[in-house]
What we know:
The complex is a heterodimer. Helices cover about 60% and strands about 5% of the residues of chain A. Chain A is mainly alpha-helical. Chain A folds into two domains: about 20-50 and about 80-115; about 120-240, no CATH class. A two-stranded antiparallel sheet of chain A has the order 1-4. Chain A has a two-stranded antiparallel sheet with strand order 2-3. In chain A, a hairpin with a 2-residue loop joins β2 and β3 (about 60). Chain A is globular, with a radius of gyration of 21 Å. In chain A, about 35% of the residues are buried. Chain B is an alpha+beta fold.
Amino acid sequence: MGSASEPAIASSSSSGPRPPVKRYAGVVRVTHWLNAVFLVGMIASGLQIYNAYTHFGLRNDPLSLPNPLDGNAIPRWAAMGGWLAGGLNWHFALAWPFVITGLVYLGFLLFSGEWRSLLFRPRDIGPAVRMQLYYLRLRKEHPAQGKHNALQRAAYTFIVVIGAMATLSGFAIYKPVQLAFLTTLFGGYELARYWHFVTVWVFVGFTLLHVALVFLVDPASLRGMITGWYRGRFPSHD
Amino acid sequence: MTDTNLSLTRRDLIRLGVVAGPASVVAACGWDGGTSLEPKLRAFSRINDWVGEKILFSPNRLAKEYAVSERTPAQSFPAYSITYNRTKSFPSPDNLKDWGLEVGGLVRNRMRLTLQALETLPSLTYTVKHHCVEGWTAVGTWTGVPVSTVMALVEPTAGSRYIRFDSFDSRYSNGWDLASAMHPQTILAYAYNDRPLTMNRGAPVRLYSPIKLGYKLTKYLSAMTFTRDRPGGYWEDQGYPWFAGI
């Protein structure tokens, strides 16, 4: 990484071109886009697998947890693999790069210290509330922020937790006998399969919100995530 | 937003399309990988087989047993057969009275085990959870002779590494690794929920084990052959994971 050129003044009200700042490291950009592709593949192949049995719980003992999709097949356009075996083979093949990219990303955050600007901590609760008030238009001024605001930290921490949950619940239903401790941790096979399914919709919801906010609030961050250079409204580093 | 740079947004939209485009093409139309990728996916599946067999599988870890009261009612426990799906009648051997399990291949003592002979061997009964590859589960009680007991009788030779289980159900078969077959809970089952197997459950004798997915549990057994090379199987040859240990 080259040295980031720090702007002298980080103002959110000035107009005109701003000096670009180096914002996203190569590792973050590469893992971000790879993850986007692998996640789409994992979800689509996972939905193909779901189509083989669209209920949760033992055969005669359905789980009393909500599933609006109970008994409904996922449409063909959203499923990958063509049939169950195809879905399984895609899912178990893509699981490797999906998990490896996730670990490379987390490893990079840890060793570079970047985790400091991303990890949501108790001290972020107040700022997160103020940020939410701004989004709800109950507050006029955009609260001051560093590279990421407290709500972003909450979102990016939360989604890593969801990624870990998706991976672990996946292993719990992949090997419920050999990894029985993991399956038990999720409440048994049927519940683990349910939580695995829930993570899908959390990922889908997160992605929709994430993309919407990029375009509505900080479109320049999209260019930043591709080239590394950022010229938007929130140029300062933590 | 007044201070967004629109020209930049458009260009970035195109760039986003470059990434999202291939991903959605892959996701579209239930793509199985096509003729070029599908064989590669199957080859990749063998890596996962290896991990399942050599790293995650423990020969002594037992599947959890359940109380008899936790059984899934038999009518809620699906049963299928390849022959039934085609003809709407369950397969039966040419003459049930003459049925015997042919145990052969790379063994010292070839054998033909009748149902009576199997019933005189030490048996094992357990109530366990059945995991179907489709994602459903059901609890049932199974009684039978551990495959390891039969193996001790026939004495596989040094070159023996796999077992092929054949059936009289439209040539349905499965290939097993020896370690999974020798697992203490892998049995040649002749009873389900305390009664002799019925035609829909794979009578007179079927393979059962709570450490494999249901499609590896050959019903309507006719032969058990020890081999040097890895045998395929009915679903496995069509692309389902070969190891299928859980």
